[in-house]
Design brief:
The chain has 201 residues and is of the alpha/beta class. It has one domain: Aminopeptidase (3-Layer(aba) Sandwich). 42% of the residues lie in helices and 19% in strands. The site of zinc ion has 5 residues, from loops.
Length: 201
C-alpha cells in the first residue's frame, strides 16, 4: 500500500515526495494528545453483548497513556472520564500543542455482523506514517483491515500528525468478546504505544 501510495503521488510535488521518502516517522515529538472516542450522552457503538464503545475507548486510551508516560512522553487526554466533549473541542486541544501528535481511539460497528478486525485512518500525507506504524503493530495479532484515508472531523481539521484507530468491531461477536477482556485491550494499547514511539523520528 505504501509504495502504491507514493507512486500515485510521484508527479505531484517535491514536498509530497519528501513525505513519501520518510514514511517511517513524522519527525520528533514529545507530546501525544490521546482522544478517547465518544463519552457522556454519546455512547458510540453498542456491542452485541450490550457493551459500549465509549467505555472501551476510554479504558484503552488510559492504557496507552500509561505506556507512553513510561516511555517518557507527555500525554494530554481530551477526556479523562465519562463526559461529552465536542469534536471541535477535541481538535482544539490538539491544535494548541505544538510538537504533538494526535491519536483517537475507537471501537467499530457495522451492520454486517461478519465485519471484524482493526483499521487505522489518516487524512493528510504527513499523518500517514503514524497511522501505518500503529496499524502494522496491530496487524501482528488482529485481523488487519489496513490503513485508510478518511475525512473524519478530528483528522481533517487537525494541524498535527493525526490517526484514528478502530480497535475491533463490537458488532462482531468474536471481536466483542476480545474487546471485553482487559488483556486484549492491554495488547491493543501496547501496539498503539509501539506504533507511536516508532513514529517519533
Ligand atoms: Zn467511534
Amino acid at each position: 500500500m505504501r509504495s502504491l501510495f507514493c507512486a500515485a503521488l510521484l508527479s505531484v510535488t517535491v514536498v509530497f515526495l519528501t513525505g513519501c521518502a520518510s514514511t517511517r516517522g513524522v519527525g520528533r515529538f514529545h507530546t501525544v494528545v490521546l482522544d478517547a472516542g465518544h463519552g457522556g450522552i454519546d455512547r458510540g457503538a453498542k456491542g452485541v453483548d450490550g457493551s459500549t464503545e465509549k467505555k472501551y475507548a476510554l479504558d484503552t486510551a488510559k492504557r496507552v497513556e500509561r505506556g507512553l508516560k513510561r516511555a517518557g512522553y507527555r500525554v494530554v487526554m481530551t477526556r479523562k472520564g465519562d463526559y461529552f466533549i465536542t469534536l471541535p473541542s477535541r481538535v482544539a486541544i490538539s491544535n494548541r500543542r505544538s510538537g504533538a501528535v494526535f491519536v483517537s481511539i475507537h471501537y467499530n460497528w457495522a451492520r454486517r455482523s461478519s465485519a471484524s478486525g482493526t483499521e487505522t485512518f489518516y487524512y493528510n500525507l504527513k499523518s500517514y506514517p503514524l497511522a501505518a506504524n500503529i496499524q502494522r503493530e496491530l496487524a501482528r495479532f488482529t485481523g488487519n483491515r489496513g490503513v485508510k484515508r478518511s475525512r473524519f472531523h478530528v483528522l481533517r481539521n487537525n494541524a498535527r500528525p493525526s490517526a484514528l484507530v478502530e480497535c475491533g468491531f463490537l458488532s462482531n461477536s468474536s471481536d466483542a468478546r476480545k474487546a471485553r477482556s482487559s488483556s486484549y485491550r492491554q495488547r491493543v494499547a501496547g501496539a498503539i504505544v509501539r506504533g507511536i514511539v516508532k513514529s517519533s523520528r
